[in-house]
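From the thread on structure requests for the teaching lab: each student submitted one protein with a one-line request. Submission from student K.M.:

"Model Methyltransferase-like protein 22 from Dendroctonus ponderosae, tokens only."
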Amino acid sequence: MDSKELYSLPICAFRRLGRMLNKYPNIQRKKGETSIPVGIFTDRTICRKAACDFAAMDDEAYEISSELYEEHDYTSKAKPTINPKNVVSDFHFELPSYRLTDKEGDLLVARNKTQLSQCLEIEHSYSTSLDLVGLQLWRGSLLLADWLLDNSASFAPRHSILELGAGVGLTSVVAAMFAPVICTDVDRGQIFQIINANVNRNRHLAKHPVEVLQLDFTADGLPEKVLAALPQVKTVIAADVVYDDRLTEAFVKTVKKILDIPPSRSVLIALEKRYVFTISDCDTCAPCYEHFLEQLKVLGNVTIEAVPTDFPQYFRYDRCKELVLWKLTSKF
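Reply posted by the TA:
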């Protein structure tokens, strides 16, 4: 691992660096920080020495954990079924009042808040290496799930929702509450098994079918099954897929392929601006997010808009100002 690669690491990766830096003096922590163990370095030389020590470690010598687990207690009594090293988390949320239905699908009037309370059980990894972060859950997926809930009245069962880079499938499960879902990712680390297990765990909520398919952003073309389904897809969703420049470039190219095929459809992309520490400036910036915005400029015949994130919050998480939502709509 080269020290330059530190630029692309999410800040939570610096927890390991922070523990290691205990042996170095003159290092302070920002007040109130919970996810950035090392925020202010008062000695530039010490900073470079510590970062080089960190960079010299093997890739498998550290693991990354999502900040999400530190914000709330998602502990579940349920046990993992795919990998005993995984955990199961309970994600409680409130249904919009107009979405309360009986077993036959008829709308009901909520008489109390308890009727609107629901819970998703999701199996996932608690920590992983950087290349398997899709096995964890990140805040962007919950922001996107909130958007799905808030806009659920606009989804029709005759139109499918396509998810790109679905990870362990939380947003696909939420989407399947309102429409059929095509859930895609690259099958690594038992991820397809985990997605299917999570869909089955939540069948009482996800009443529409979920089809799990392989879609590699770096592949030359779209899979035949995805191409065949696109005429019925009006909404494409993706969360937390922007954290590596090469992957971001491949992701945007995949989005372009999808938007170039009629009819018109929209792509919703939820992500968190990932600030990293740069050795050269001894400061933080969000290079992966900035690179993502640069890549969006190459899209043609597409309307690009930032979606305000002040819509109601239904899931429990910290909706920080770094969480953003972008909407790309093709013009036909």
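TA comment: Residues 1-51, 107-114 have pLDDT under 50 and may be disordered. Residues 3 and 229 are 43 Å apart (CA to CA).
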